Every structure is written in structure tokens, then in C-alpha cells.
Amino acid sequence: MAADTAGAEYIAEFIDGPLEGEFDHRALVGGRSEARVGMVAAVDGLESLFWYDRVDEREVGGGLRARFRFDPTDSDPVESDDEND
User: Fold this and answer.
1) Which residues contact residue 39 at a Cβ distance below 8 angstroms, ignoring those fewer than 6 apart?
2) pLDDT tens for residues 52-77?
């Protein structure tokens, strides 16, 4: 796999959930992207833990990119107070 020549990093792309559209540079684990990623992010000023599962990984521009899907079951709830927006 060409990921060996790209260094010890990959790019994680979050395709849905609270981090939809975000990218993160992460360390390879055993030459691959992680199967599951926990991310802490602030939503409406409150820090929450969100879990994402790898959907696929591919080579892009000589580097490795993995796409992750949100797992709402194991993640902190995301609540928005729409009445005050």
C-alpha cells in the first residue's frame, strides 16, 4: 500500500453527524486508519464525545484518506435548544 510512502499519517473525513464535513490528520495504526475514532467537540458550548466508524479507506494524492460515519448509539446526545436560536 502506498500509505507507507506518505508517512505515518492519514486524513480522516467525517461524512455525517456533528462533525460532518470536517477533516482530521491522524496517526496510522499498524499501517492502516483506525476502525473506530472517538472525537471530542463542542456543540452549543458543551463538550461531547462522538464516536465514528470507518466506512472505507483509499489512496488520494499519494496519501491515505479514510471516511467515517457517525455512531449516535455510543455517542453523547446532541441536543439543540431551537427555541432560543
Assistant:
1) 14, 19, 24, 49, 50, 51, 52
2) 999 999 999 999 999 999 999 999 88
CB 64 within 8 A of CB 7: no
| 83 in any annotated domain | no
- Asked whether residue 85 is assigned to any structural domain, the reply reads no
Please tell me the total count of domains within the chain.
1
Task: Note whether residue 84 is domain-resident.
Answer: no
What are the b/e assignments for 27-36, b being 16+ CB within 10 Å?
Answer: ebeeeebbee
| C-alpha to C-alpha distance for 3 and 26, rounded to whole angstroms | 13
In a domain, 81, yes or no: no
pTM value is: 0.80
Name the residue range of residue 55's domain.
Answer: 2-76
Q: Please count the other Cβ atoms lying within 10 Å of the Cβ belonging to residue 73.
A: 6
